[in-house]
Amino acid sequence: MFHLDYWESCSFKKQIWWYEPKSQDQENDQEPIVALKMVTKIYPRNFMKNIPTIRNLCMDFKKGEIFAVMGTDGSGKSTFNETYIALYRYLLYASTTGTKDSITYCDEEDIIWPHLTVEEHLYLFAILSGISKESANSITEELLKELGLESNAKSNADHLSGGSKRKLCVILSLLGNSRLVLLDEPTTGVDPLSKDILWRRLHLEFPPSKDRTLVLTTHSASEAEDHCSRIGLLVNGSLKCSGTSQELKDKFSKRLPINSQIKI
Questions:
Q1: Phi (first) and psi of residue 11, to 5 degrees
Q2: Does the model's pTM come out above 0.85?
Q3: Cβ-contact 70, 218 below 8 angstroms
Q4: Assuming Cys at both sites, which of 99, 137, 183, 237 could form a disulfide with 55, CB separation 3.0 to 4.6 Å?
């Protein structure tokens, strides 16, 4: 699913800090759940030219926030997600504290088993996430109803429409209760009603008071503004700015002064 062997042939420098949960009296709302420091990624075809796709990337993500990564085509958004796949591999082999169970990644491509039904997908992922069989059955029924897929429950997932496949894949990535969830273009190809359903579920899963963090890439400025705690803008593989929607508006919006006169 993650194609991790791809990274064997790539140059990838990384400095990654993963912050383990602290006790209540140690908690600091400003401390990130994970931070990247001076991360650089160079594809093999550009190795001799020393042309990085990701350049000295420094980012941190705080608990309880929904962080949107935005940028034009070619800005490095896809490579940003691939970098996190490498982070997943690094933690998978290096961690002895259970950190590897704290990260979930949902690719832009919908990865499903064509011969499993929608119901079987939800039930299987719930079981793999450590949920009991009894709870898995009730969760499956609840999600089928919430997603509007009750009529497709017994159908093979491969028969779903593109938007329904996307909804299913995004919801599957949330079942593990991971501390850090990475979504690549979660609402691409999804109709407006289904987008509202997905965002309601995402806000339910990632409230500010919870020790979970969602990082997503998106092309939709309106979705980032309406639903995300902070926004980071990538340009040529570098993070040029980040902040809340209002902070970015205050800093970069062009203000047009208007003088008006009213005759009485």
A1: -85, 125
A2: no
A3: yes
A4: 237
